[in-house]
Amino acid sequence: MLRLSLIMAVVLPLLACCGSGGTNNKPAGKHGEEIPLQYAENLTLTQFPEYVKADIRNPWDTTKALHTYILVPDSLQLPDDLPQGTVVRTPLKKCLVYSSVHNSLISELGAIEAIKGVCDAQYIHQPDLARRIADATVEDCGNSMAPNIEKIIKINPDGILLSPFENSGSYGKLGQLGIPIIECADYMETSPLGRAEWMKFYGLLYGREREASDMFSRTESEYKELCSLTDSVSFRPRVLVDRLYGQAWNVPAAESTMGIFIENAGGKNPFDNNKGSGSVGLNAEKVLHQAGDADIWIVRYSQTSDKTLSELATDNPVYSQVKALKNGNVYGCNTSKVFFYEEVPFHPHWLLADLIAIFHPEIESGRDASHNYFTLMQP
């Protein structure tokens, strides 16, 4: 899916990252107080009197650090005894943001004025931000995989937010600009609330700590309340997810984000014998063997017109053998029209309510029509 490219950027190991945006290599001489995080596994926040230290664990090698940030309010003089890390003066006032996911969150936190540049503008649907891009108030810096360095220099941002990926080398020219590069590794969290909790970090970056904390509290409360609705369901429908891409059908492992969503929504993941936290690539025959009897099939896709059951059946002869397609129980999410990837990461309760309504129509989940991601696929 095209939107998956939004999370692709370049990752740099901790020691190299510390060269971006000003650093201080002196050891910390103070003891801080850890800011409580209940779900995020790859993020630690520590409050000191004059700054916040944000430690990001390398999600691909959890024995190592990915990056450390020292968030210092710009109202204070830079302390002399800062610990090692990339110094970021907060709140950010003119940033470049690669991903529509983070652009949407920053806008929702009330910091849209701080966004001065974006990448992959075609995927941004937040109305106010889209208007600012159209009238050139916000600079379109091109493709996130090869951004326009000249435009970035023109903006002279005080921070660049991008999503890292594994073993991608250095940031090249971008890493040589002396601008703090904020590695948004939230997408590597393995639980829905774990990723959403990263909004507290972004709140700190933009001086919106209270707004972010309140938003997460509401999200957590609603998510847990929804989970309680399915705790004692007697029937859990078997749920198949997505379809073949090339030769591989990526199915959710038990501890994957989608696997957790299915479980919390009162469904049964046919592939929960795989105990990992990511997806598992299987061939079509293997998927059909394990999940051909799925009661419900949910499919994410991106195309101009909504996919139909007959179209899905002709996409691959294997699909017509799935029980859910035979019975017309296929639900599609057309991500070219529905803002699934922009909204769900920091509002997982919206998707959970949607899935409960599909898996258990007898339960009132309070699903909001504006957050109706999956709809019944027509013949």
Describe the model.
By secondary structure, the chain is α/β, with parallel strands linked by helices. The chain has 14 helices and 17 strands. The strands form four sheets. It has a five-stranded mixed beta sheet with strand order 1-2-3-4-5. The chain is globular. The two termini are 24 Å apart. The N terminus is likely disordered.
Query: Beta-sheet strand percentage?
Result: 15-25%
Q: Roughly what is the average pLDDT, rounded to an integer? A: 90
Q: Could you give a short account of the major beta sheet?
A: 5 strands, mixed
> What is the approximate shape?
globular
DSSP E strands, number? 17
Helix content: 25-40%
Rg of Cα set: 22 Å
Low-confidence stretches: 1-29
Strand order of the largest sheet: 1-2-3-4-5
- Assign the structural class, choosing from mainly alpha, mainly beta, alpha/beta, alpha+beta, or little secondary structure: alpha/beta
Distance between the termini: 24 Å
Oligomer: single chain
Number of helices: 14
